[in-house]
Design brief:
Elements: H1 2-6, E1 9-11, H2 15-27, E2 34-35, E3 38-46, E4 53-63, E5 66-70, H3 82-89, E6 92-97, E7 100-108, H4 111-124, H5 127-134, E8 141-146
Parallel strand pairs: 1-4
Antiparallel strand pairs: 2-3, 3-4, 3-6, 4-5, 5-8, 6-7, 7-8
Length: about 150
C-alpha cells in the first residue's frame, strides 16, 4: 500500500469527477462520501495500457465486509468504463472509504451472486436498470475484497 501512495496518480478526465475526488481527498470523505444519494469511494487502478495509476470516485454498496460497484459508463453506453477495464487487467486496486485507505482485490460477480448484488444496487440506484435496458452489453457488477 505504501508504493501506491508514493506514485503519481492521475485523476478522472471528467472535470466534475476530478473535483469530487479532490474534495474527498482533502476532507477524508467528509465532503463527497455521500453524494448523489449514494455512498462514494475512491478507486485507484493501474492503467492497462499506460501502467499509470488512475483514480476515480464511484458509488458503492456494502455486502457484508465487501464493497460492490456497478461498472456503468455513459448511462448504459456500449463500452465498459476505463476503470473497469483497468481492474479487469490488474485486479489489485487501492480504495479509500472516508479516511480509511486499503488495498483490495477486485473481481466480477457472475451468476446468482451477480443477480443478488445487481438487485441490491438497483434498489439504491434504480437508474442502473434503465442503463442496462439501453445497453448492448451486460453491465458488470464488481466485488472488492480487502487484502
Amino acid at each position: 500500500m505504501t508504493a501506491w501512495a508514493m506514485d503519481e496518480v492521475i485523476d478522472s478526465p471528467n472535470p466534475a469527477v476530478a473535483e469530487h475526488v479532490r474534495r474527498y481527498l482533502r476532507t477524508d470523505g467528509a465532503s463527497g462520501y455521500t453524494e448523489g444519494g449514494m455512498t462514494n469511494l475512491l478507486l485507484t487502478t493501474v492503467g492497462r495500457k499506460s501502467g499509470k495509476l488512475r483514480r476515480t470516485g464511484l458509488f458503492f454498496g456494502f455486502d457484508g465486509d465487501r464493497f460492490v460497484l456497478i461498472a456503468s459508463d455513459m448511462n448504459g453506453g456500449p463500452t465498459h468504463p476505463s476503470w473497469y477495464l483497468n481492474l479487469d487487467a490488474h485486479p489489485e486496486v487501492h480504495v479509500q472509504v472516508k479516511g480509511e485507505k486499503f488495498t483490495a482485490t477486485a473481481r466480477t460477480a457472475v451468476g446468482e451472486e451477480r443477480e443478488k448484488l445487481w438487485a441490491m444496487m438497483t434498489s439504491h440506484v434504480p437508474a442502473y436498470d434503465h442503463y442496462q435496458a439501453r445497453s448492448t452489453r451486460q453491465i458488470p457488477v464488481v466485488v472488492l475484497e480487502k487484502i
